[in-house]
Amino acid sequence: MFNNIYKGKKVFLTGHTGFKGSWLALWLTMLGAEVCGYSLKPNTEPSMFAELNIENKIKKSIYGDILDVERLEASVEEFKPDIIFHLAAQPLVRLSYSEPVLTYKTNVIGTLNVLEAARKCKGIKAFVNVTTDKCYENKEINRGYREDEPMGGYDMYSSSKGCVEIMSSSYRRSFLQGEEGYAMATARAGNVIGGGDWALDRLIPDCVRYINSGQKIEIRNPIAVRPWQHVLEPLSGYLLLGQKLLEDGKKYAEGFNFGPREESVLRVAEVAQKVVENYGRGEVIVHKKDNLHEANLLMLNIEKAEQVLGWTPTYTADLAIERTVDWYKHFYQKDTDMYVYTLNQIKEYEESIKWNKNYAIK
Q1: Would you give the distance in Å from CA 161 to the centre of its chain?
Q2: Rounded to an integer, what distance in angstroms lies between the CA atom of residue 274 and that of residue 276?
Q3: Pairing between strand 225-230 and 265-267?
Q4: Cβ neighbours, 10 Å, residue 263
Q5: At what angle do helices 268-279 and 317-333 cross, to 10 degrees?
Q6: Cα separations (Å) of 49 from 196, 204, 277, 326?
Q7: Residue 295: pLDDT above 70?
Q8: Which of 10, 95, 274, 299 could form an SS bridge with 81, CB 3.0 to 4.6 Å?
Q9: Secondary structure of residue 293 in the 3-state scheme
Q10: Contact 188/135 with Cβ under 8 angstroms?
Q11: Positions of E strands within 181-221
Q12: For residue 30, which of 47, 62, 52 has the smallest C-alpha distance?
């Protein structure tokens, strides 16, 4: 897959202890890459990183803060990667209300630190900079946002990621033009689901917690509409984008959306009910909303990723929810080696890509 581009490549992955980072670390390792992870220790209990012993499955794991410039730069310089995938972030909207300074420091200054560490290390060819669909100025319009639309963000998390996009564009024009520097692109994805996520204020992890504690599932915003995709969908987009950057350099050094098709854009209440149906137990109720603002409608236009990269989503929302619930059921039943099970879900997804005739990945 991905033209075998990652076999033998040295990959520096920030945020490797997080949910998406853990999945990406495993997939890169399966693809033959030497992965060096750089991240804070897992901040949830349990965590996919710890439960699957990912620290001992990759080449090197460093516990470090992207705000610690000296440690970050020394780690990049020592490893001398071919490509960087930057996922480390403060990723929660609601936490950004209580920790606005931390959110901006981590997401904006932290990203700038990683970009600078990469520029100071000779030999790096590509940089995939992961942001979010929430980087757009959301007017809650009934269509997907295109990559050339204005950045913005109501809450501090969303606006910090809008700032990252603006800063990344400026950084590219300032320091990465012509023969100078590496090829850097930004990747924007929406609500991602999959096994191994235990972060607070995430719909499916919250549903699973309620079900396994015997409580009714409380949801705050049942009519909110979100694009739902399995974690392997955007990760396949990041990997494909990394492949293109490594092969063709700065031709692909732009922003790209990775989201599901319109039929996978569902209301929160619909998703919670599908979790209950797949789990075989549980009950959904509406919890009284607090006063923190959360968008009711947000969608992405993915035509650019389809036409320019040859990427297209493979799983429906129903299949993504089914795969996610299956992962948690096996985890809590303690009847399965979850490392092997997770690798099998990745292989299963790879097979689905091969059968998807719209997908250009070879």
Answers
A1: 13
A2: 5
A3: antiparallel
A4: 9
A5: 50
A6: 8, 18, 28, 18
A7: no
A8: 10
A9: coil
A10: yes
A11: 183-189, 191-193, 217-219
A12: 52
Counting Cα atoms < 13 Å in the Cβ hemisphere of 91 gives 25
Tokens of 161: 């990621």
State the helix-helix crossing angle for 338-355 and 19-30, rounded to 10 degrees.
70
CA angle 261, 262, 267 (to 5 degrees): 120
Residue 35, C-beta contacts closer than 8 angstroms, at least 6 positions apart:
11, 13, 16, 25, 28, 29, 58, 59, 60
Task: Write out pLDDT tens, residues 58-102.
Answer: 999 999 999 999 999 999 999 999 999 999 999 888 899 999 999
Cβ distance 227 to 190 under 8 Å?
A: yes
Which residues are within 8 A (CB) of 301 and not within 5 positions of it... i.e. 6 or more apart?
143, 144, 145, 146, 147, 257
Q: Residue 219: beta bridge partners?
A: 286
Tokens representing residue 7 in the block? 């076999």
- Whole-angstrom distance, CA of residue 287 vs CA of residue 359: 41
DSSP string covering 300-358: B--HHIIIII-----S-HHHHHHHHHHHHHHHHHT-S-HHHHHHHHHHHHHHHHHH-TT
DSSP state of 144: P
CB 25 within 8 A of CB 13: yes
Mean local confidence (pLDDT), 114-136: 96
Cβ neighbourhood burial of 244 (10 Å; 0-12, 13-18, 19+): buried
Residues 6+ apart with CB under 8 A from 215: none
Q: Which two tokens stand for residue 172?
A: 């590219």
Residues whose CB is less than 8 angstroms from the CB of residue 134 and which lie 6 or more positions away in sequence, other chains included:
93, 153, 157, 158, 161, 162, 190, 295, 298
pLDDT level of residue 361 (50, 70, 90 thresholds): very low
Contacts for 238 with CB less than 8 Å, ≥ 6 apart: 24, 85, 128, 130, 187, 258
Neighbour-count burial of 333, counting CB atoms closer than 10 A to its CB (0-12 exposed, 13-18 middle, 19+ buried): exposed
In this structure, the number of other CB atoms found within 10 A of the CB of residue 167 comes to 17
